[in-house]
Amino acid sequence: RGDGKGKLPPGPKEEPPTAPPAGTPCPQRCRRAGTLQSNFCSSDFVLTGTVKSVSRGPPQEPGWAVVSVLSLYKSGGLGVPQPTKGTTLRLQLPCRLCPALKKGSSYILMGRLGGDGGALLPPDAFVVPYRPQQQQVLGNLSKRPCRET
């Protein structure tokens, strides 16, 4: 057309420049599944916290997030001291891309314990931005017994 008003065809979606190394379990897309309720019992720990720092490190090594705990709803053997509010916790991030965490933001974090007993946030961990209205829902979930599978 030449009038400058034509649309360009959509380009390919941007992918990370390099694929994660074979030893790092990263999915094609970073996507969480389920709800607060469906993930609560299957997670080893459930907490709300504010991200103090995120370090993604070299590609062959896991990254880390340092989180200041707001509330702990399920400790799963993390060994977090009481009272939990203000305690900092170091979470391992085996995938460089997921979950996406931003310094200064608060999240609900549902993760697993690693083989060394440390906190682990795998790519499929249930991580959502925290809103104060969710506190009551999490409190109610923490009072219900989880069925062992």
From TrEMBL:
Intracellular or extracellular location(s): Secreted
Residue ranges constituting the NTR domain according to the UniProt record: 26-146
Matching InterPro entries: Netrin_domain (IPR001134), Netrin_module_non-TIMP (IPR018933), TIMP-like_OB-fold (IPR008993)
Listed transmembrane segments: none
Main subcellular location: secreted
Residues covered by region (Disordered): 1-29
Superkingdom classification of source: Eukaryota
Gene3D superfamilies: 2.40.50.120
Extent of Basic and acidic residues compositional bias: 1-16
Gene Ontology, cellular component aspect: extracellular region
Entry keyword set: Disulfide bond, Secreted
Protein name as catalogued: PCOC1 endopeptidase
Organism: Oriolus oriolus (Eurasian golden oriole)
Classification lineage: Eukaryota, Metazoa, Chordata, Craniata, Vertebrata
